[in-house]
Every structure is written in C-alpha cells, then in structure tokens.
Design a protein that fits this description.
By secondary structure, the chain is an alpha+beta fold. It has two domains: about 1-125 and about 135-145, no CATH class; about 155-320, Porin. It is built from five helices and 17 strands. Strands 7-8-9-11-12-13-14-17 form an eight-stranded antiparallel β-barrel. Strands 1-3-4-5 form a four-stranded mixed beta sheet, with helices on one face. Strand 11 (about 210-230) and strand 12 (about 235-250) form a beta hairpin. Helix 2 packs across helix 3 (about 80-100) and helix 3 packs antiparallel against helix 5. Mean pLDDT is about 75; it is low at about 1-10, about 110-125 and about 135-145.
C-alpha cells in the first residue's frame, strides 16, 4: 500500500487548486485530478484552478498564470462532497487535456500486465503485436460523460425582493414599500418579475375653501427585465404593464358631506436597478416611473371645485433581493 501511494504522489505534478470551500476542499479536488491524469513539472506551475461557492452552486474556473481562461463552469452543489470533488476534477481534467495534451505525463504500465507479457514471451518466442495507442484525452472525457452528477446547471432561480423608499407625485414625497417575486438569471440575461408597492396618501386642494382630496394608487407591476454586466456590478432594465388601485377621499368638508371612492386603473411602468456583486443577498437601488394614461379628475358634487390627478408617479427604493 505504501509503495502504491508513493507512486501516485510522484506521478507528475499536482494541479494548484485555490478556494475557501469546505465541501469539496481544494486539496481533495487536486488529489482527484491527480488520480485521473498527471501533469508535467513544466506545465503544473503555469495553471491554477479556483473554487467559489455562490449559494447552492460552486463556480469552477481554470486559468493560466497570465490570466488566460481555460474554462468556467457552475456546478450545482446538491450532491455530497465526494461526488462534487470527483465531478469538479473530471471537468478540470477535460479542460486540461483539451487545451494542452502535450504537457500530460504518460501513465506507467501495469506491473501485472508486464509479468504476464514476460511469461508469454518465455513460452512463445513470437514477438507480440504493438499495443494500440489510446489518446490520453479520452480518459477524462469518458469520466465526465459517465458521471451522472455532471449535468448542466440551471440558468434561472426564484428570488424574493423587498425595498423601502418613497413615491413622488404632485410635488409631494410619500413613503413607499415594495415587494417582488422574480425568476432571476444566474448571471446575466433575461428574467421576469411580479411586484407590488404600497405608497402613502397624496393630498391636493379642490379649490378655495372647498376642502381637499386625499388619494392613493397602489400599483401591481409585472414584466420582463434584462440584466447587463456593469463594472463591479450589474444593471437591470425592466418594462411592463401596471394595474393600480386608486382610492379618493374628501377632507376638510363640512360634517357628513365628504365621501370616498375607489376604482382600478391600467397603465405601464419602467424600472432601472443597479446591484453590486454580492452573495446570496443582492442589495440594489431602483428608480421606477409609472404611467397612467388618460385623465382622472376629483370634483365636488356641484362641480364648482375640481382637480386633476397626476398621470405620472415616480418610485424610488433601496432594498435587497434574496436568493434561497
């Protein structure tokens, strides 16, 4: 047993694997790569791999010393640590053999096979046929294809969002709370979101001495969005339809003369969000104008006092998107 372990350690050089993951550990991944193939002493110092955990996934990267990327892949961390380590090692071995097969160390012959060949030679003096040449690149590729856990990772995931901020309309700011459920892309690309906002009440005068109207319009928003990489963070652009619940209420009227009214209204919205890179919690800043076509007018019963409600509201918010 000691001789076999010593032989494995001396077969080529070990790949440098870096990372702070504990399942699997970089040391275990490097050992599994060593079991699949060996690297020459000339090539091993020129490459390194990194393991980074992002929630339920592990990001695997392989690059050369000058920063040239040899491969990137996201693995779903739903298996145990041993299976994850072997899967990562198979992917790394496939990248290595595809890029630089000339730097691989040839595996030694099996001692048992050598003994059998010598015995056969003693009995039969006919020279054996030359062995078939099998490319080294086939071994890691076969391991990667047969491993059931090396499946393509999901490109989207469900996420929850929450934010607080304010709404602006009629030259007034009111408090606002925003909640959302989104189908979020893992990196960049298209996503979809359903959100709702609660805003405080605005007030507008109806005329001189005619009291005022208090109104709220809570929007329900639904639409696709596109995420772009932007420096050290990401930028999201969103657009879609809006359904608002408008409620009007008279104030400062004589007793028993003020009334309230509620109705639904249709509109549209756009949203711009900036998110710095983070882990499972993604903070963001958002600005979202909401447009309500047509005109809504609040007036008294005798029609001598009235006011028109604004058709544009602007929502500002700061919050987080939570990735389960």
């Amino acid at each position: 047993m000691f001789v076999a372990l010593l032989h494995t350690a001396l077969l080529g050089a070990t790949l440098r694997v870096e990372g702070e993951t504990s399942c699997p550990t970089p040391t275990q991944v490097a050992a599994d790569v060593q079991k699949i193939l060996g690297l020459s002493e000339e090539y091993a110092p020129k490459i390194h791999a990194t393991l980074t955990r992002d929630g339920a996934f592990i990001d695997l990267r392989l690059s050369e010393s000058d920063g040239t990327s040899l491969g990137e892949r996201r693995l779903e961390a739903s298996e145990d640590c041993v299976v994850l380590s072997r899967t990562a090692a198979a992917v790394l071995a496939a990248w290595l053999t595809d890029q630089h097969p000339e730097f691989l160390v040839a595996l030694p012959a099996n001692p048992a096979s050598t003994t059998e060949a010598n015995t056969a030679t003693a009995v039969d003096t006919t020279p054996p046929p030359p062995p078939a040449v099998i490319p080294v690149t086939q071994k890691p590729n076969a391991v990667a294809m047969k491993n059931p856990s090396a499946r393509a990772p999901s490109t989207h995931r469900l996420a929850l969002g929450a934010a607080i901020g304010g709404g602006w309309a009629s030259s007034q700011f009111v408090p606002a709370v925003w909640l959302a459920l989104s189908l979020d892309p893992v990196t960049t690309g298209w996503g979809a979101q359903l959100s709702a906002a609660w805003l405080g009440a605005h007030s507008q005068p109806l005329g001189t001495g005619a009291g005022e109207v208090s109104w709220t319009r809570w929007p329900l928003l639904a639409g696709p969005y596109r995420r772009f990489a932007l420096g050290s963070g990401t930028l999201e652009l969103e657009v879609g339809p809006a359904l608002g619940w408008l409620r009007l209420e008279g104030r400062q009227f004589a007793p028993n003369t003020a009334s309230s009214h509620a109705q639904a209204s249709l509109g549209g919205y756009g949203a711009l969000r900036f998110m710095p890179k983070a882990g499972a919690w993604h903070p963001f800043l958002m600005a979202a104008p909401v447009f309500w076509p047509g005109h809504v007018t609040a007036e008294t019963n005798n029609l001598d006092s009235q006011t028109r409600l604004p058709s544009v509201e602007l929502l500002f918010a700061a919050g987080v998107r939570i990735l389960p």
